[in-house]
Amino acid sequence: xxxxxxxxxxxxxxxxxxxxxxxxxxxxxxxxxxxxxxxxxxxxxxxxxxxxxxxxxxxxxxxxxxxxxxxxxxxxxxxxxxxxxxxxxxxxxxxxxxxxxxxxxxxxxxxxxxxxxxxxxxxxxxxxxxxxxxxxxxxxxxxxxxxxxxxxxxxxxxxxxxxxxxxxxxxxxxxxxxxxxxxxxxxxxxxxxxxxxxxxxxxxxxxxxxxxx
Length: 213
Prior knowledge:
The chain starts with a helix and ends with a helix. It has helices at 4-18, 24-54, 58-64, 66-85, 92-115, 120-148, 155-177, 183-204, 206-212. It is globular and about 45 Å long. It is built from 9 helices and no strands. 31% of the residues are buried. By secondary structure, the chain is an all-alpha fold.
């Protein structure tokens, strides 16, 4: 049995203590990283609740329940941060990515604790797939929310659209990796490939960089 609460405490305490001796962007990133880990912990509870409530197996839950629960849980602290503290929209992408990094890191640590770290190939695949899908959704959420909240008339519908897109990407990834080869290989690769494409687009379009900063 994996005691994920104990894992969270072990990882979170050093990060929280470091907040007293850092400032600026380093403190913000560390804080949102810790929040992401906490969101992962809560997301596991929420997904397990709905999995038991609807009486579905692990595969069905991974495709139909987990993507919705996890993406909603990752979005909520970002919206809370924007609505309560009213930061500049340009600060949202780094916050969203930090939350996603914390979520992916905590999930991977729990996976390692439960399954061991002997198979390097399997862990490498997990890093460029399961970890990357959370980073991909964090990038889409951060830049997407930053864009739509500059236009009040687009805020609500835009946020719903971004959440739907991230949930869709997450569900497609989970569906692909549960399929037979070669579809599961496609699933393993497409998050990292999309991140690479987004990076190329961001670097290739200076006007986009100026607009999002």
